[in-house]
Design brief:
Mean pLDDT: 87
Helix content: 55-70%
Protein name: Thioredoxin-like fold domain-containing protein
Organism: Novosphingobium indicum
Radius of gyration: 23 Å
Strand content: 5-15%
Order of helices and strands: HEEEHEHHHHHHHHEEH
Number of helices: 11
Largest sheet: 6 strands, mixed
Oligomer: single chain
InterPro entries: Thioredoxin-like_fold, Thioredoxin-like_sf
Strand order of the largest sheet: 1-2-4-3-5-6
CATH topology: Ribonucleotide Reductase Protein R1, domain 1
Keywords: Signal
Shape: globular
Number of strands: 6
Distance between the termini: 32 Å
Number of domains: 1
CATH architecture: Orthogonal Bundle
Length: 247
């Protein structure tokens, strides 16, 4: 795991004030119904630094996950957390979740580039799938020959990423989403995405995060929290504070 939130009136104005109150209540009811009918899980956006988030932009609790695709603990966290978040607090508009890449090695970089390949609205489909199949493609990385590893760590970065995508059968995974080899290669050569991932690492360095997964809640680092149990406890506490009006 190591590594690095008019109207009182008197006399003849009572009727007018009453009318205003009715309009206001109607507007509030309409807004409430709109929120209740919103599918917050499908509210997906990319941030300026290339991170991805889903959920209510006005949620009182904002969770950021800093994850590595080659981190087994991150895959375990994803397996435990994602169904609970998407079935409970996110649909209620209480929590928004942001995913940021914490890159530990060239394989991380390659998978991160591919997770960002294609429709941004489908990012979480690819994100979840890479974690769900981690046991398969990561084992190929563990079993890689010396000659394969040399191709990963020498030469231009684009050639290195293409070698990893080939050796780990990542091209095959991408083809399952209708993204062919030429399109995949174009994504691996995406300098703008590479720069965004670099910007993410700069922000992570400022936060002093060195372990995966790591988390912030409403901008504050959750110290010594690296699993779903700790994150769940922090979210519950933050929501309780929000209900009590202490945040």
């Amino acid at each position: 795991m190591k590594l690095a939130g008019m109207k009182t009136a008197l006399g003849a104005m009572v009727l007018a004030a009453g009318a205003m109150t009715c309009v206001s209540a109607s507007a509030k009811t309409s807004k409430s119904l709109e929120k209740a009918s919103t599918n917050w899980n499908s509210r997906i956006e990319m941030t300026a630094d290339g991170s991805h988030r889903f959920g209510n932009p006005d949620a009182p609790v904002k969770l950021t996950e800093y994850v590595s695709y080659t981190c087994p603990h991150c895959a375990h966290y994803q397996q435990q957390s994602d169904p609970v978040l998407r079935l409970t607090v996110v649909p209620k508009g209480k929590v928004q979740v942001t995913v940021t890449n914490l890159l530990r090695n060239p394989v991380d970089l390659t998978v991160a580039m591919l997770a960002n390949c294609g429709d941004p609205k489908r990012f979480f489909v690819r994100h979840n799938a890479f974690f769900a199949t981690q046991d398969t493609w990561l084992q190929k990385a563990i079993d890689a020959t010396k000659s394969q590893q040399q191709r990963w760590y020498q030469g231009p970065m684009i050639d290195r990423m293409r070698a990893m995508a080939s050796d780990l059968d990542l091209y095959k995974i991408m083809s399952g989403w209708g993204i062919d080899r030429a399109q995949t290669d174009a994504c691996l050569a995406d300098k703008a995405m590479l720069e965004k991932l670099s910007n993410q690492q700069a922000e992570i360095a400022k936060l002093g995060l060195k372990s995966t997964p790591s988390f912030t809640l409403n901008g504050k680092v959750l110290t010594d929290v690296h699993d779903w149990t700790g994150v769940s406890t922090a979210i519950t506490s933050a929501l309780a504070d929000e209900r009590d009006g202490t945040v």
